[in-house]
Amino acid sequence: MKILSVGLIVLCGALYQTCSKKIPAGMNPFSSLILVYSASLTAAVILFFATGSVFPNEGLAAELHKTNAATFILGTVIAMYEFGFLMAYRSGFQVSQLLPITNVLSLAAAVTVGALVFHEGITLKTLLGLSLAIAGILVMKL
Fold first, then answer.
1. For residue range 102-121, what is the model confidence (pLDDT) as tens digits?
2. Residue 125 in contact with residue 133, Cβ under 8 Å?
3. What b/e readout covers 49-73, taking b as 16+ CB neighbours within 10 angstroms?
């Protein structure tokens, strides 16, 4: 399941960047997001009912009662994440530059949040990996 999950993330990540870059520059970014999230909601509803045997549930209403604030915060964060990518592409970033830069900076943020919020240890290997990722970005910019 881990390999399948990572493969799905990689495939969808590539499609995400391709589609984000192809959103018409003249389109209001928030109207685009309304349509994007309408499609996402539709897909989520279909997948919820289609995968009931794989991911058992107690029905949509019961599942919705299990939520917490993190769900709504995540929704807002995702909308701003999308908006950030749309604006970055409109300002001229190339996919081959923007994604590595944002991923490395997100990695640094994730290591920090992991340590401070979830009490995950920061090992020498973690710091070395982060340093190599930062070095890779610097090499790309030369």
1. 999 999 999 999 999 999 99
2. no
3. eeeeeeeeeeeeeeeeeeeeeeeee
Closest CA to 109 of 85, 87, 133, 91: 133
Q: Cα separations (Å) of 95 from 7, 43, 76, 98, 114?
A: 19, 26, 24, 5, 27
114 φ, ψ to 5°?
A: -55, -45
CA separation for the pair 17, 26 (Å, rounded): 18
Scan for tokens 């409109």, then name that residue.
90
- pLDDT at residue 131 greater than cutoff 70: yes
6-59 tens-digit pLDDT = 999 999 999 999 999 999 999 999 999 999 999 999 999 999 999 988 888 888
Q: Which amino acid is at 101?
A: I
Rounded Cα–Cα distance for residues 3 and 18 (Å): 23
Judged against a pLDDT cut of 70, whether residue 83 lies above it is answered with yes
